[in-house]
Amino acid sequence: ERIVEKALPEPEASLLIGIMFGSKRLFSKEFNTALSSSGVSHIIAASGYNVALVASGVDMLTRKSSSKGSVLLKILCIWGFSTFSGLSSSLVRASTMTTFSLVALLFGRQSNTGATLTLCITILMLLNPFLINDVGFLFSFASVSGLVYFPKCFENIRSKYLKESVLPTLTCMLFTLPISVIFFKKFSAISLISNIIAVPIISSSIYWGLVGTVLNIFLHFQYIFLIPYLQLSIFKYFVLLSSNVKMAEVSINGAV
Description:
mainly alpha
C-alpha cells in the first residue's frame, strides 16, 4: 500500500488499493458520497470478483493444470488473499463456494453451481445466523443467485456485449434491489448506466496495479502506474459526473 501511495495521488491511490486488496480507505466526504450515489462503491471493495481474479492468476501460472497440486495451490491462494483482505462476509462466501467447487475437482467430480451456492449459504448461516443482517453478505448472495439462475432466461441472446456486460449488471441490480430499498430506503437508476460504463474502464487496473506494485518492490519504476492512474482518473470524473444526476434517485416513498 505504501508503494501505491508514493506512486499515485489521492483518490487514485486509495481506489487502486481498494480494488487490489479490498482495504477500506478514507475518501473525502464529497467523493465518498459520489461513490454511493452513482452506485459503484462495490467496485472498490474485495468481493467474489477478486477471488475469481486470484483463481485466474493461479490458472495462468499453472497453465490451467487440473492436477491436485494446482487445485490445492488455488485453494491456498484464495484463502490467503481473503485473510489478507480482512475476511469480509462477501469474501468468505466467495471463497467457501469456490473451495467447494475445487474440492469436487479433487475427487474428479463436476460441481453444480446452484447446489454449491445453497450448501455454502446454509453452512455459513449455521455458523453465524447474524449474517442475515449483514448487508454485504446479502448483496453477495443475491447477486450470485441472480447470476446463476437469471441469465438462463436469455440464452438465445447472441450479442457478446449484452451477455458479458449489460445482462450481468442488470441481473445484479434487479436481485439486490429489494435489499437496497430495505436497508438504504432509496434506489438510484443511474447505477445501472454507471456500472455498465465504469466497470470496463477499470477492468484491467488491478492487473497493472499488481504488476507495478511487485515490480517496485525490487526496482524504482513508478511510470508503470501511469496506465492505472489514467483509468482511475477517468473513473473518478465519471463518478463525480454521474452522482450529480439526482433526478434518477428514487426514495422508497416514490418521491423523486
